[in-house]
Structure prediction request, 768 residues.
Amino acid sequence: MLEKLVNGFESHLFRNRKWVIISFIFITVFLGYQASQLKMDAAFSKNIPLNHSYMKTYTKHQKDFGGANSIMVAVEDTSGNIFNPVFFDALKNVHDQLFFIPGVERSQVKSLFSPSTRFTEVVEDGFAGGPVIPADFSNDEYGLQVVRDNIEKAGIVGRLIGNDYTSAMVTAQLMEFDPQTGKAIDTIAFANQLEQELRGKFENDKIKIHIIGFAKMAGDVAEGAKGVLLFFLIAILVTAVMVYLFSKSVMLTILPLACSLIAVCWQLGLLTVVGFGLDPMSILVPFLVFAIGVSHGVQMINAVRRRVLDGQSTKAALASAFRSLLVPGGVALLSDTVGFLTLLAIDIGIIRELAISASLGVAVIILTNLILLPLVISYFELPKKPDNPQKAQQIENIWRWLSNFATPKYAVVVLVSTVILYGVGFMQATKMKIGDLQGGAPALHQDSRYNQDTFFITDHFSITTDVMTVIVEAAPEACTYHSVLSQIDQFEWMVANTPGVESTASLASVAQKVNAGFNEGNPRWEILPRTTASLVQAVGQVPTTSGLLNGNCSVMPVYLFLKDHKAETIEVVVKKVKAVAAELNSDTLQFKLASGPVGVMAATNEAVSEAQLPMMLYVYGAVFVLCLISFKSLKATIAVIIPLYVVSTLAQALMTLLDIGLAVSTLPVIALGVGIGVDYGIYILSTMSNKLTNGMPIQQAYFEALVERGSAVIFTGLTLAIGVSTWFFSDLKFQMDMGILLTFMFLVNMLGAIIILPALSAIFWRKK
Prediction:
């Protein structure tokens, strides 16, 4: 039945090849225009699991306490002392400039020049205070001395002022939507504005500007992603050379490359049609689409050339090759597509868009490289010049040697070695960490400008963007009750003593300091008042702009400043917070995770951890079902899947050896590697199964499968590996990591298909 359908489809296509090709041209022009409208999109909300419980808490209180999408600008005086007129002019200019950049929440801009930056001191009559920089501030020696005294009184050293007085901080929260247009803030355009309006205008020999925050990081990642075009051109050039060496024909080099580029064009155009942009992760997908397209194109070229050399006409050879490759090639590409779609199970926008982008790209390869390519080649006449007999004999000798892996004697050795290798890899893979294992922005190299800015701020300030916020929810006016604040104080003290927590802040700890101030600054009175009247007096000195309470005092965050955002640090702190919260939570008081940048990272890490096993089950389940339908044999399906699983485990082991954590950028790699790696086994085993059905011995069946498909399979592995190996030189660390892992998986999956798969076949089909 299936053979009849394939024959009918082939006959219809080749009879109407002119109209089919014209249809492809029109579609390519339309989608090419759509691709030209594609824009970069790096929205903050795409990078977080919005349905995670932490993120529900985050979005619920984002309006009152700001979110994780913040910017920190450190202004450094290169002379080593900020108390000079030049520095204060620069600091004020940076504050004012940041204040007026569209997308900044102006009420949340803080620096020495913010009216909300105040000092309080105890005097004979009680309290006295005011803005750290007074209204009548004069930028001279006397005025700077006044400001220096006020800084000491305000206790902002380490927060708004560097610990060594060499720099000062300007911070701001960013909005998700432009209030004037109602459209989402263009993160990349905003990052470019920061670079131009702050660093471009105010950095000089005396002043240095250091900028960190999600928006700036996204901008730097987008800037680094521009280099992807160069890598793409290099990949095309290298692939073209390899295809020419394989085909020995300029025409057979140009056509598969052209069809693969058409697939890339369609993929990018379809992204615009479905309303997606191109983010820094999905910008890597065209690489994969091109490489996969070329690999399947080479299978077609290989099949046609062999038939032409056997004496068939070019058109008859193409029709025969089309019939023989449509099912295995279609199943392989369908496995790739379904494998990528399993990534939709991960509740992170940027991964879901990657899944859709990759699935669209691989799906169109079925049309461009399995249908369009043979139709176009049919208009040319292929030469019937055979390969050099000596070279052909050498290749045949290689296939004859490899066919030994399909004998019981060699199969036992291969399978025992595979089990040992899997065992070692599995033990190593269990050490894999969830999250980032390096300081700074993991998407960028350690020596990047952004990470150097991060390290500067970390070294010179007591706080950085590595903040986790625990939201305390209670009844209105709860902060006027001693029982409530004492619980918060107890929570803060227990968490503050957790490894990885550098410092903490909450309304309870600030109220204690205020209470001491009301009692002549005596440290013995640095406690929470037990009477409501005294507590109201202490809490009343803390404004809502401090971020320590909301308008009706029903929500009071506890800020945890961590030493870094490495996976182990976050895991330890989250575990401690959950344990303490479980102990202290009651019907009237709830400690909820989490807000702040590290709160977002914690939610993302948990989402990745939770998605890892289901994703693997989905991708292997999809491949299993499709192979079972295709081969109609459980043995054949298992023979294809076992090498894939072993290689996946070894890839996870490699991640631990290279200090690569399982994060948003690396989680899809396993699915991509499995989805694409299955192609090798399907092509080899589909050829073997036909011969085994006709009664051929297993070793001979494998030998003939290698003669027919071996060169193309090995070429495919090398093409895919070379296509992504150019990523090693990327400015983006996450792209380099993905390149290393994909190169490993493409090559080792190919080796698994030509070594482990025949060994399994020799055991499964011993009678043959």
In short: The radius of gyration is 32 Å. The mean pLDDT is 82. Residues 77 and 87 are 6 Å apart (CA to CA).
